[in-house]
């Protein structure tokens, strides 16, 4: 089934530096005593992305993004991904904007333009509490809260088990080279999608959202000193500021690809996950602040 274009996200511009050793394109003044001097090439590459409705072809791309969040956690990601695809009227995936076919681009993989670079959606984990993946997510939240923030567990449990105040699992993930500006149209779109569903009496009216955010901190040699936490998706720090409950747990024993490569024993950073519980009326507030912050950078 072909993807439907939902809305066009803002064009993103990224700068990439590359050292091309063995490059035949160099000037005479780059020669010194017969030796080539590799010179950094600063290239500004403009890449345009668009948001599309999820469909069956996005399964593997979305599941891969979810694996970045859940790592080795006991969560049925196939079922969770299928749930997201089945409710494709909520949220979106981010793909590279279609470009005209070029007969000269021999060797280009047709799947390159269909790759999933990011995704955003929400799952009602109150209504769908009987799904295996949702049960596993709820257990993951409670188990880690009990281990790392026992004083908050009772409150979190009450939130998760309140049938009258639905909680949405907010899922926002992208690859590291995708700039945070892409999150603004994604959040705007998600909020509009939920408003449409609410007008149709669908169960997307939430009292709260819960998000598992990728975070990290520098390892400290002193047990008396706790290093500050940084968010891999920088805009989520503003979601943290409006959250009513949060806690952080370590995933140092899991293989991780957060920030800049795989984590190992020599990495100076500790991989973490920070759980955020966000009041529903604060999501738009946070998105407005994200817009302002990104506009000033």
From TrEMBL:
Region of interest called Disordered, as start-end residue ranges on this chain: 1-39
UniProt feature, compositional bias: Acidic residues: 22-36
GO cellular component: nucleus
Short name of any one Pfam family annotated for the protein: BCCIP
Coiled-coil residue spans: none
Family, as annotated: Belongs to the BCP1 family.
PANTHER family (alphabetical): BRCA2 AND CDKN1A INTERACTING PROTEIN (PTHR13261), BRCA2 AND CDKN1A-INTERACTING PROTEIN (PTHR13261:SF0)
Stated name of the protein: Protein BCCIP homolog
Organism: Mizuhopecten yessoensis
Lineage: Eukaryota, Metazoa, Spiralia, Lophotrochozoa, Mollusca
């Amino acid at each position: 089934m072909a993807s439907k274009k939902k809305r066009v996200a803002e064009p993103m511009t990224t700068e990439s530096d590359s050292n091309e050793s063995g490059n035949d394109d160099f000037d005479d003044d780059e020669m010194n005593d017969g030796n080539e001097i590799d010179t950094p090439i600063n290239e500004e590459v403009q890449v345009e992305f668009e948001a599309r409705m999820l469909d069956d072809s996005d399964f593997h791309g979305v599941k891969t993004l979810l694996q970045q969040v859940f790592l080795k956690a006991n969560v049925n990601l196939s079922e969770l991904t299928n749930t997201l695809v089945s409710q494709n009227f909520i949220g979106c995936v981010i793909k590279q904007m279609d470009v005209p076919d070029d007969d000269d681009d021999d060797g280009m993989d047709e799947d390159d333009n269909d790759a999933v670079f990011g995704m955003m959606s929400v799952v009602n984990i109150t209504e769908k509490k009987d799904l295996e993946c949702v049960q596993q997510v709820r257990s993951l939240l409670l188990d880690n809260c009990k281990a790392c923030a026992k004083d908050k567990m009772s409150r979190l449990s009450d939130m998760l088990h309140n049938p009258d105040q639905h909680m949405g699992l907010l899922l926002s993930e992208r690859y590291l080279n995708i700039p945070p500006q892409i999150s603004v149209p994604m959040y705007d779109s998600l909020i509009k999608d939920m408003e449409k569903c609410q007008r149709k009496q669908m169960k997307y009216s939430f009292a709260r959202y819960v998000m598992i955010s990728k975070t990290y901190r520098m390892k400290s040699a002193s047990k008396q000193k706790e290093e500050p936490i940084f968010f891999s998706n920088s805009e989520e720090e503003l979601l943290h500021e409006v959250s009513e409950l949060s806690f952080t747990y370590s995933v140092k024993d899991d293989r991780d690809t957060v920030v800049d490569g795989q984590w190992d024993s020599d990495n100076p950073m500790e991989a973490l996950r920070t759980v955020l519980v966000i009041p529903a009326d604060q999501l738009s507030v946070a998105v407005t602040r994200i817009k302002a912050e990104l506009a000033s950078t």
